[in-house]
Design goal:
With 457 residues, the protein is an alpha/beta fold. Helix content is 37%, strand content 19%. The strands form six sheets. It has a seven-stranded parallel sheet with strand order 3-2-1-4-5-6-11, with helices on both faces. The chain is globular.
């Protein structure tokens, strides 16, 4: 029997991905938003839109009535006035719990999306774990920790679980977009030599949220969301450069500039820019050497495994930015200007068609590998698709279709590699002019539609 799940902050970057994961899981989703919210990431999805305010308990009582599960994702991550962090993140969470206890006291689960900032940065070289004493260093982190402490008071009355994500990236995010654009255009801004951070792809975070809702072992517990080891910030930037096909110039930003100069120029940036790179209150986060956490607890107790290591996650994000035309690459600009010219390239002694504006030609001829490679010979290369995450075979020739003999050989190769469960999907949606084929265990579907292989840890 399907359950009704309320998610607050459902229209945002993280919230909308949690909505997708809940829908794929088969849940009925009630999405709480503000009347002024932009609903672009909820359009066409089978969700119930409800309007509520975390400062208005009466509105919250109406919102939570009849729900089985609450995912409290709404919150303030950036504010000019520090009071807003406590008003929304702490008091808002307390108000929501009070509304639940009054109207839905038999709730099956209450999950709070907190933050790595609630635990604080890493001391020394050991990864921070859930049982470590929390030491937040910003008002944002302190407000999230206070919210967690309020929830702990109610754990005898409600089945509460808490998740602490680190920095989150992925499709629909505009916070990292400026960095992707700068690196693609040839500038690689770096600050703090050797700084280490944990990061999580938004779809891995959403999957862990749903898994925590399912597991009784998650009740009364806090889990960090970090399925992969931490990375140096420079490694993250270099991975962006790899997937967008750029060789950017390193621009080292010294700590003294961030500490002493940025606060002075911030008012001007705030006046003349639509969105400055970051608010001054984020400087303590940025000047801290290590924000590294362990995801072992979720792996050991819940069996959670991430699907997006750094290369695949950054590659998928970049492709999504390009798909939505939030960002372009050199190949995109060649195509837009009509400067792409079919060329002939020699490949193992054979002349083959090549298009300098085609990403699949870049993969087949130039070795622009952005995800896992499964197979390669003189005719095909097989990789994981960045968007669909399923195996994809690409022809080493720029033409629109496979021959019948090529199709038969591909089927044999795929059967040898992946067995009989996969079947070909020859509909070439994004790059129809270059022959490629996806091999799926289920039919292609929008990201919020339930599929038989979904939600596996």
């Amino acid at each position: 029997m399907s359950r009704t799940v309320l998610i607050t902050g459902a229209n945002g970057f993280v919230g909308s991905h949690i909505v997708d994961a809940l829908l794929r899981h088969g849940d009925n989703v009630r999405a709480m938003v503000r009347p002024t919210s932009n609903l672009r990431w909820l359009e066409e999805k089978p969700v119930e839109i409800v309007y509520g305010n975390l400062q208005d308990i009466e509105s919250l009582k109406k919102v939570v009535k009849g729900v089985d599960v609450v995912v409290h994702n709404a919150g303030v991550v950036s504010a000019e006035d520090k009071y807003h962090y406590y008003q929304h993140n702490t008091e808002g969470t307390h108000n929501l719990v009070k509304a639940v206890l009054e109207v839905a006291p038999k709730l099956k689960r209450f999950l709070f999306v907190s933050s790595q900032a609630a635990g604080g940065p890493t001391k020394g070289h050991e990864l921070r774990k859930e049982e470590d004493h929390p030491e937040p260093i910003t008002d944002y982190g302190k407000s999230k920790l206070l919210a967690e402490n309020w929830l702990k008071r109610y754990m005898d009355f409600l089945p509460i679980t808490i998740i602490r994500p680190p920095a989150v990236y992925g499709p629909r995010d505009d916070a990292f977009l400026i960095l992707f654009k700068m690196i693609e255009r040839g500038l690689n801004p770096l600050f703090g030599a050797g700084r280490m951070v944990s990061m999580v792809h938004v779809q891995d975070l959403a999957r862990q949220v749903v898994l925590q809702l399912e597991h009784d072992k998650a009740i009364g517990e806090i889990f960090y969301a970090s399925p992969f080891p931490p990375h140096q910030l420079e490694e993250f930037n270099n991975t962006i450069a790899k997937v967008v096909g750029s060789t950017p110039r390193r621009i080292v930003i010294p700590d003294i500039f961030l500490r002493a100069v940025y606060p002075l120029i911030y008012p001007a940036l705030n006046l003349f820019m639509k969105k400055p790179p970051f608010r001054v209150d984020k400087l303590p986060d940025m000047l801290t050497p290590r924000w590294t956490i362990s995801g072992d607890k979720a792996a050991e107790r819940l069996g959670f495994e991430g699907k997006f290591p750094l290369l695949a996650g950054v590659g998928q994000t970049a492709e999504w930015y390009r798909w939505k035309k939030w960002m372009t690459t050199r190949r995109d600009r060649l195509k837009a200007r009509g400067e792409a010219r079919m060329e002939t390239r020699m490949h193992n002694g054979h002349a083959r068609g090549y298009d300098p504006s085609c990403d699949l030609c870049g993969l087949a001829f130039d070795g622009e590998l952005k995800t896992t490679k499964h197979y390669e010979d003189d005719e095909f290369i097989i990789v994981d698709c960045l968007i669909c995450r399923v195996p994809m075979a690409v022809l080493k020739e720029h033409r629109a279709s496979f021959t019948e003999d090529e199709k038969k050989r591909l089927l044999t190769i795929f059967k040898d590699l992946f067995g009989d469960k996969h079947h070909p999907d020859f509909e070439q949606r994004r790059i129809p002019e270059h022959a490629h084929v996806h091999f799926r265990t289920t039919q292609h579907a929008p990201p919020w539609v339930r599929r038989t292989d979904d939600m596996k840890a």
